[in-house]
Design a protein that fits this description.
Layout: H1 5-27, E1 33-41, H2 46-62, E2 70-76, E3 83-90, H3 101-111, E4 116-126, E5 142-150, H4 155-165, E6 174-180, E7 186-193, E8 207-217
Antiparallel strand pairs: 1-3, 1-4, 2-3, 2-8, 4-6, 5-7, 5-8, 6-7
């Protein structure tokens, strides 16, 4: 007669492994928050900047950073050749648990800051009621990056008007509201593009300034792209 001890022990080990993994599952649950930042390479220093940034991404690989980092060069706009990097789909506490922030900063100073200036760094919240798609954009070759700065007090009317347009969106359209990092109220719209020119989404009234830029994805200057 076979002992039942073996199967029981296996079930106990499986249950223990599952319980131990629960905190890990909780840490990697997706959320609505994003960080979007901008670097301006020094004049004539673009090649060295890109090499330094790639070296810095290698630091993230060596330290097993769990974040995904997108990297884009601004192809069309007043900030041509500037660099946008971003991470999406985070829970509210993720940014408090970044991998080794002090060492990350030291590596940045060694490899990135000699060749570029950090000019913007904002935290944003994804707005699913206004959007078509997920909190993280598709890794397309081109991305339309629209920044909308509203007149104070127009946020509610602006969001209501966009929500009314949502059912007519045919393609991926992601709206984010800035929660820290600059003059508010500010919104960002991301729309992956298969071609340079795309259909325009009419924006509601109330904007003090609208900026539309086209970004080019840089896979070598990105990390853990989906």
């Amino acid at each position: 007669m076979r002992s039942a001890r073996g199967p029981i022990l296996r079930r106990m080990k499986f249950a223990l492994a599952f319980l131990l993994a629960l905190p890990l599952f909780a840490q990697i649950q997706p959320g609505p928050f994003a960080r979007i930042a901008v670097l301006r390479p020094h004049d004539g220093d673009t090649v060295d900047f890109e090499a330094g940034y790639i070296r810095h991404l290698d630091w993230h690989r060596r330290n097993e950073d769990p974040f995904t980092w997108f990297g884009w060069t601004i192809w069309a706009g007043e900030r041509q050749r500037w660099f946008v990097y971003a991470t999406f789909g985070h829970a509210s506490g993720d940014f408090d648990k970044a991998v080794n922030p002090a060492d990350d900063e030291r590596d940045n100073i060694a490899n990135v800051t000699p060749h570029a200036q950090f000019v913007a760094n904002g935290l944003y919240e994804f707005l699913p009621a206004l959007s078509r798609g997920n909190p993280q954009p598709t890794a397309s070759a081109r991305l339309e990056f629209t920044t909308v700065e509203l007149l104070p007090g127009r946020e509610k009317a602006f969001e209501s008007a966009l929500a009314a347009q949502r059912e007519h969106l045919a393609d991926e359209t992601l709206w984010f509201r800035m929660i820290a990092g600059g003059a508010a109220p500010r919104y960002v719209r991301l729309r992956p593009r298969a071609t340079i020119l795309g259909a325009e989404q009419l924006l509601p009234d109330g904007a003090a300034r609208v900026t539309v830029e086209i970004l080019t994805l840089r896979p070598a200057m990105s990390y853990r792209l989906p």
